[in-house]
Amino acid sequence: MKPAAIEEFFRRLSAANPEPKSELEYVNPYTLLVAVVLSAQATDVGVNKATGPLFQVVTTPQQMIDLGEERLRGYIKTIGLFNTKAKNVIKLSEILVKDFGGEVPRDREALETLPGVGRKTANVVLNVAFGEETMAVDTHIFRVGNRTTMAPGKTPDAVEQKLLKVVPKPYRRHAHHWLILHGRYVCKARKPDCPTCPVSDLCGFKEKTKADNA
After folding, report:
1. Model pLDDT, residue 41
2. Domain coordinates of the chain in residue numbers?
3. Between vectors from CA 165 to CA 130 and to CA 38, what angle results, nearest 5°?
4. What does the alpha-carbon distance between residue 59 and residue 41 come to, in Å, rounded to a whole number?
5. What is the pLDDT of residues 54-94, one digit of tens each?
6. Which CATH number fits domain 3-18+135-202: 1.10.1670.10, 3.30.70.890, 3.30.379.10, 2.40.50.100?
7. pTM score, two decimals?
8. Which residues have a catalytic role annotated?
9. For 103, phi and psi rounded to 5 degrees?
10. Which candidate, 174, 44, 26, 171, places its Cα nearest to that of 104?
């Protein structure tokens, strides 16, 4: 995609949804961090079902430590890999209390030292909690970046670096949300909804789907 097409791509997505939000439910930066850690290989809907009751009783690292790993497992047992995730959440909560005064650090390197937190998770927290212009490349963004030809790459890191270069500055803060939502609801993995796509004419995908009655 050429720069003018990319600019128009985000202009249209921005016009349709000026303030996109994460579909993960959270109360503060700490509960956001927990929700993102729990969301690995799980759906946002599934995570929200578990964290709704959890975040009514836990909103700080110390409260999570006091809850304990066994009781935490009870809240999140419907989420995949819940045993490992429970261990990680308790450990990262202990580190936040011990090393960061109970606060979520606004620093990528510090975030990535926490158990269960990789680059994508750190990017989500920096963007959603602190408004940083990061690009958290999940399966949806990876697919959209490649399929549209906006940011082709063989790895999430490669797609992330290309997006950071090509997304126009005014759109960088919300770009990852627009791309996630676009990939989740329009540019779907098995059958992209090209006939109703608002940016279909800008996209470099050669095998566009046609309307069912076309």
Report:
1. 85
2. 3-18+135-202, 29-130
3. 40
4. 23
5. 999 999 999 999 999 999 999 999 998 999 999 999 999 99
6. 1.10.1670.10
7. 0.89
8. 120, 138
9. -105, 150
10. 26
